[in-house]
Amino acid sequence: MRTWPAPHVPELPGRGPEVRVVDTTSGELVVAAPGPVAELYVCGITPYDATHLGHAATYIAFDLLHRAWLDAGLEVHYASNVTDIDDPLLERAAATGVDWEKLAEEQTALFAEDMTALGVLPPTTYLGAVETIPTIADAVQRLLDRGLAYRVPVEEGAGGDRPELGDVYADVQADPHFGSVAGLDHDETVALFAERGGDPQRPGKRDPLDPALWRRERPGEPAWDAGELGRGRPGWHIECTVIAQGALGAEFDVQGGGRDLCFPHHEMSTAHARALGGEGARVHMHTGMVAYDGEKMSKSLGNLVLVSRLRDRGVDPMAVRLAVLGHHYREDWEWTDAHLERAVARLARWRTAVSGNGGPDATSTLEAIRTALGQDLDAPAALRAVDTWADAALSVGGDDEGAPGLVARALDALLGIRL
Ligand code: ZN
Hints:
Layout: E1 20-22, E2 29-31, E3 37-42, H1 53-71, E4 75-82, H2 87-96, H3 100-117, E5 125-128, H4 133-145, E6 149-152, E7 167-170, H5 186-195, E8 212-216, E9 232-234, H6 236-248, E10 251-258, H7 262-275, E11 280-287, E12 290-292, E13 295-296, H8 307-312, H9 317-325, E14 333-334, H10 337-354, H11 363-374, H12 379-395, H13 403-415
Parallel strand pairs: 3-4, 3-10, 4-5, 10-11, 12-14
Antiparallel strand pairs: 1-2, 6-7, 7-8, 8-9, 12-13
Helix pairs in contact: 4-6, 6-7, 9-10, 10-12, 11-12, 11-13
The structure holds zinc ion.
């Protein structure tokens, strides 16, 4: 999968602090990566309806983590995926009468354009599900061989010329640590599993929560050869497990995504990692949900604000980024035009403030931005520090010739805001 061009990250004097973040599992502030290499996996999009503000907020949040790590002197290995084959993609393609591959390709390209416009640093490993199928199939076969997965009979007409191979499901009961990521009780998990794409009612499963690892071919659905698994396609959770392990190793620092991925997706992908002999992520991080018109922004509700539409309207993507950064990443919030208007005004004010020949000393401003980001990526506090400097620059001024440049570089390097 081709990634997007990396924006330049300006050099800053000194070093940022060790970055601490709230781990979803423990609820505690923990060191995100001990270093010297920081490993991050952020779940990628399923390429349709890209990129709504909820996606943008998630990738911008992890971009702050990426930038704060770089500033702390760590080398960052960042892996992400594109789920370019899955049920929702096929459903959307069928509903709109377009070819699924064309839909995936167009939406993946649009996502890359949006990420470029929003100044998000690209992943160092970026893989699609389709191009990873042989590796995923190999992992599924290993789980079957170890007795941690099993075959489930398929309905009449499914499974092509080898229907007896069945679909393959993971056995969650075989994992004593299952449930450790989200910490929910069994009834809650079954309800969420059904709500978020799972199939608790599927006949033949050992546990309602068992997730699909390999889905055999169905009439009208694409399928790939996979030896003794039979022609089919991979499940979503195992896709992320395999891509993360391949890029970052059996254990890595942070797995992240929107809060709605905590269960089942991150629970399942971590369980698969353990079943394959690894540990998965040490720390799980989840971003809040972005609402619009009073409801969580989601594809199923259709209340999406798309970054590409805002760009088409001529909105400065830096204002979109700034509007997102006005909220702490774990907060749930609602996108409104007023947020955008405030961000446009703030950006204009900052641009005026850094355009002078000098300004008040900015050393403490840089320090305040770094401290805020080091404490669970507190972007709103970092923005307030910039406001304080801009207020002083515009009211009393100052004769530090290097200050406007330092503020502009700090905004660019740490917050991804290009003035
Ligand atoms: Zn994922």
